[in-house]
Amino acid sequence: MADTKNHASPPASLAEVGQYSVGLTLVFVLASACWVLLPYTGDLFAALVFLMAIVLAGTWWNRGPVLLMAVVSALVWNYFFIPPQFTLHIDKPQDMVMFSLFFVVALSMGHLITKLRAREAALAQQHEEREHLLELKHRAELLAESERLHRTLLDSVAHELKTPIAIIRTALDGLGQGNVYAAEIETANRRLQRIVENFLEMTRVESEALEPQPDWCEIGDVLHAATTPIQHELAAHKLRISGADDMPLLRLDSRLVAQVLGNVLHNASRYAPAGTDIEIHTALADGRLELRVRDHGPGLPLGSEDQLFEKFYRAPDSPAGGTGLGLAIARGLMRAMKGDIEARTHPEGGAEFVLHLPVKTREAT
After folding, report:
1. Cβ-based neighbours of 362, under 8 Å, separated by 6 or more
2. Would the pLDDT of 8 be above 50?
3. Exposure winner among 6, 152, 225, 297, fewest CB in 10 A?
């Protein structure tokens, strides 16, 4: 036998059941009062009282109880008030017309009033939704303005710091190599300079003012431009490069690619133990340049593959220092060049970052 349990109509709510009960009770009370007043008012008075009750009920109740109240009121008026009384039979044509009109008017009023209530409820809901959308729009505008001020502040601070960094650099050159504090000051100055450059680059990426300038270049030149500024950070590791010797000329923005690769290598140098290798593998496939950077450190925290590229994100066991902007900038630059960057834990251990970039190629002459 087919299971009809899931197809049964939902039971009426307790409130609606109460409306049915109150409606029938109200008809009985009004009929009793009109019956007492019948010698003084006539049968039309009862019809008007019933109609008034139906109108008032329609302003508060659901459609079903109001329509039932209209039907019962018409039958009660016919049975008790229209001659001959205590029967549903009507002798006079005018009484038949009056009863028919009462029946139609009662049903129509009950239906129209409940329909108006439903429309009012829909309008109220639309108003609430509109208010909610306006609130969301206002909140989004505030967030956008806050983000704009945040970028402006970072850009202003970063520009203001460039001058003292340059002065410190000049002062270091004057101190010479014999000063015992020179190496520490140089390390701190280099770190500060990198932070300032990251702030400036992040504001350019987020403002969408970055326009790649592709040109023909050799991948070896890009690798050299990426590793030279971070030679100090890479000194504790052995850099192994493969695949670069067989590469044709590539049309890309060498400055941006070098910056992305430099950020990834800097990140690898921070997390990989001293003395371990950092590997760079280059390849071409279907008009896309692929750069793989792998270290031999602890790998990525589970589930952090996408979080790594969020602004200011730092893994729980991150070394001291850093702002958490390097990888966010790397992804922003790659996407500005119509490419992307992904991260994963290598099956044999360590973290691996894969850069994908569409390029045009040309054999060197």
Report:
1. 216, 248, 249, 251
2. no
3. 6
